[in-house]
Design brief:
- The structure is a single chain.
- By secondary structure, the chain is mainly alpha-helical.
- It has 2 domains: about 100 residues, no CATH class; about 210 residues, hpI Integrase, Chain A (Orthogonal Bundle).
- Strand 1 and strand 2 form a beta hairpin.
- The termini are far apart.
Length: about 350
């Protein structure tokens, strides 16, 4: 447990029983009714515990005493302690979500958070790789372009050294580049989130139609196509790689870690970063490959709505940022090439 988690737990336990119960009930609602991920629920709980800790310090010991002034005071305190605009926007959203739920549940007589304003989060343009850079990254496992220390194949042990494969020998060692290759291919070919890629089961791959079934945020299911290079990588992995790494812990997982269990997203991030560094590319993450895939699709003429569906965005506004990336690239090319720029 991290230091921040321990701090949140301590503040949670110190809350008055009514407030503590409200936090727990809202967390259960998010998890069971809204089908939010564990990470998302934890973020909401952290924000609410912080809010209620501030409210208690202001003299509010009962949920009915929560009002707009308390919410605004809490955000103002966050701002004075140096919270970023993105953090403030997220915390305000947490307060509004809780207020709306509490009002519907009859815990609040009014939705006091409905009028809570929050600073507009500054959205930086995501960094993306060029198409040739993405190709160089994906070819790393095939060309044996590896860093001085090979990409981690599982979570580090307590000493910090990479763990050894559960099944040792030439076949298991040869399986790692095949796993790394299919991971890189799928991330770039489909633009899926790293958690979605690691969550794939063998049965989620439709080889005939060349699509994968993905379960995204909120448990929303979508089908995402992939190309011939990714199909070849999948075939090699399923024929030669996965059988060499499979263990009793594997279950139906498509991508496996060194111990034979499902590949962990943290390890997947390490793999992507290590191959990018080995290829001399800018610092790259799985989300960077997702950004790159979306940008290259739009630059190639894909419809914005189609890209939204592929990425699993619930709102078109989330997808539109990639049109700004393309415009910025066009401006850069214009400034570099046009004599009158």
């Amino acid at each position: 447990m991290s230091r921040s988690d321990r701090s949140t737990r301590a503040m949670h336990q110190a809350l008055p029983p009514a407030l503590r119960e409200a936090v727990d009930d809202f967390a259960e609602h998010l998890s069971r009714v809204r089908n939010r991920s564990t990470h998302t629920v934890r973020a909401y709980v952290t924000d609410l515990v912080s809010l209620f800790d501030h409210a208690v310090r202001m003299g509010c010991v009962d949920l009915t005493e929560l009002d707009l002034s308390v919410l605004r005071s809490w955000l103002a305190r966050q701002r004075t302690t140096g919270a970023a605009r993105t953090s403030l926007a997220r915390r305000a959203a947490s307060a509004r979500a809780f207020s709306a739920w509490a009002h519907r549940a009859g815990l609040l007589s009014a939705d006091v958070g409905a009028a809570l304003a929050s600073p507009r989060a500054h959205r930086e343009l995501p960094s993306v790789l060029r198409a040739d850079q993405a190709a160089a990254l994906i070819d790393g496992p095939t060309r044996r372009v590896t860093p001085t220390d090979p990409p981690p194949t599982d979570l580090p042990n307590t000493q910090g050294a990479p763990t050894k494969p559960a099944r040792e020998g030439p076949a298991a060692e040869a399986a790692v580049p095949l796993r790394d290759r299919v991971l890189l291919e799928l991330l770039y070919a489909t633009g899926v989130r790293v958690s979605e890629a690691c969550g794939l089961d063998v049965a989620d791959v439709d080889h005939g139609r060349r699509v994968i079934r993905v379960f995204g945020k909120g448990g929303r299911e979508r089908s995402v196509p992939y190309g011939v290079p990714a199909q070849r990588a999948l075939d090699d992995w399923l024929r030669q790689g996965r059988p060499a790494m499979v263990s009793a812990r594997s279950g139906d997982a498509l991508l496996l870690g060194a111990r034979g269990g499902r590949l962990n997203p943290t390890t997947a991030r390490q793999i992507v970063g290590a191959y990018a560094e080995a290829a001399g590319l800018p610092r790259t993450s799985p989300h960077g490959l997702r950004h790159s895939a979306a940008t290259h699709l739009l630059e190639g003429g894909a419809d914005l709505r189609a890209v939204q569906e592929l990425l699993g965005h619930s709102s078109l506004a989330s997808t539109q940022i990639y049109t700004h990336v393309s415009v910025e690239r066009l401006r850069a090319a214009y400034r570099q090439a046009h004599p009158r720029a």
